[in-house]
Amino acid sequence: MTRRLAGLGLAVAGAIALGGAAGLAQSVPVQFVVSGQVAEKIQDFTTINLATAERLAELCEKAVSARGDGAHSIMILDNDGNHVYSDRMDGQGYQNIVTAEFKARTALMNRAPSKSVMNRVERDATQELHSYQLGFYPVAGGLPIVVNKQMIGAMGVGGYGPNPPIWSDEICARTALVEVFGPSVPPLLEDLHAERRPATTPVPRFAAAAPPKTSLPAEFVVGGRGAANVFDANQISLAAAKKVARVCRDWEASKGGTMAVYVLNTAHELVHMERMDGQVATDTRTALLKAQTALRMRVPTSIGEAQLRNNPAGLPRSSVWWDYYAVSGGLPIVVDGQMIGAVGVTVGAGGGGDEACAIEGLKATFGDHVTLPVYPAAPTVGR
After folding, report:
1. pTM score, two decimals?
2. CATH of range 218-369; options 3.90.1140.10, 3.30.450.150, 3.90.480.10, 3.40.190.10
3. 348-365: string of b/e by CB count within 10 Å (b at 16+)?
4. Looking at residue 319, what is its pLDDT?
């Protein structure tokens, strides 16, 4: 009897311990994470939701826009490292955009600010090689997103010339985190700077250029100083990219579905992406492949899908060589005859369709200016 009671006591203690651990893991307020039936679908109640990710990005953008002296690129990942939300503010170039993701991934893998890796390198230069080999990017600007001791994702910000303590990429990220999650967000780590030899080689500057010209309506494309920074006045603007995505999002939600969407510029750089709650890694991956294919081939991916159905024996090998993802949902964004980017959409079960969602977003954003696919009447099959 004593053994049975002891065993029962251990079992109860174990259950309490497990219950306590489960309670801790589920202690994140539901407004910040995927919850309910959607969380059951992806088997994860601890991953940042779209609403929170979107708010973080917009708060950071609002803060730097108020300064009027720069811009940021922002990437927010879930706790599995999948894209949830991303914005490239107008005028940002390749390096600014990709480093935002590098920083977010470093914070996610290291479960600490990317500056912690930077500081290790500053203390010991031999750590730099080790950091790269482990996939870390030793530059400040990436912060883990932790709520009630639960990591729900990571935020990476790039693009702003560091000027601490006045402003920097990580200051923008923390400013947004504090506004959303409150004062529990840890303070930023101290900057460590190793002694460096004075520069002796003159560094040239690229001559300033006048803003390039475009024939397109100003609300559709990057303009002014942003266009001058990238020497391109025919890149889709962040505002236009967001509208395409949000119309698609609302339309898909009205159909009872979910979606992931990527909008790229003509330089194959990410302008905006968002993943509705309930989408899994495959959905985001295929949406990106569709946008990349539409951009590279300059035609809707539905053309390749139709050709594959008509010729299943021949097109697959061609598609592999062309790197063509032959599934409907990718469209080049052509406005008044000028290609300014591409969009790729993947929707969940019960939705309104990948290409249809993209078309709704394009029509609402560009109206009669945009070129859309035209489907001929199906041929009549004789008896």
Report:
1. 0.89
2. 3.30.450.150
3. beebbbbbbbbbbbbebb
4. 66
